[in-house]
Design goal:
Distance between the termini: 85 Å
Largest sheet: 4 strands, mixed
Number of strands: 11
Radius of gyration: 26 Å
Number of helices: 12
Order of helices and strands: HEEHEHEEHEEHHHHHEEEHEHH
Strand order of the largest sheet: 8-9-10-11
Structural class: alpha+beta
Strand content: 15-25%
Amino acid sequence: MTPRRIERRIASGRLHPVWRGVYAVGRPQLGRHGRWMAAVLACGPGAALSHGSAAALWGFGKERSGLIDISVPSTRRGRREGIRVRRRTGAALGEVVVHDCIPLTSPVRTLIDQATELESMGQLERAVNEADKLDLVRADALHTSLDDYGGQPGVARLRKLLDPLSFRLSDSELERRMRSLARTAGLPMPETKVWVNGYEVDFFWPVLRIIVEADGLRYHRTASQQKRALERDQTHLAAGLWPLRFSHWQITYDSAHVEEVLRKTMARARDAV
């Protein structure tokens, strides 16, 4: 389309300038997705939504300062009002996908980028949890995939967050850890890997009728897995047992909480015997 034809359409209200070379058709107002797409187009071929803007589009973050984050090839120059231009290497831009018709960085790359900018580990953890909840990135798979990004900005911080969340004890290590916690809480030694009410349970105190299950991210993350876990607990509860469920993280890194819950449950179980 020639400049003259563009000018005529602007004059008639059919085109509305957004950025140089980018126009809204029919009306000047653009929604959030429209501005994201316009910003990508304004930054030229190879550009993609990234960082906070990509996180917002994926659904696990938000933009900062009202600016749109766009990643472009490192050789690209120029600025655009309202756009925060990020000059990137080919590796980062090699992970561009299309979502809602908008080019943007992949969920994994977006989380790595967010790890370089979010102020607190709590904010980063919320982003990872939301991405996992949306089935965009599995937390345990994310931990493994970081091996492919060694040394890149954001990876060390993200790994620091994920190490305790995805770490899973072996059955023997978990058994030793739980036996130690039970002993400190004043409980006798539990039976392990026994069948109760048609289910194999991790730990069982038959006299006190207490059951403890240890959950890991890998085996208790989907809706169907969570449903089965709830059905197990409900069956045990209906049979007059005391089912408790702890995460591997709690058993490994928050032993004081586990011991306190075991101690209180033991006291109530003894009163009920």
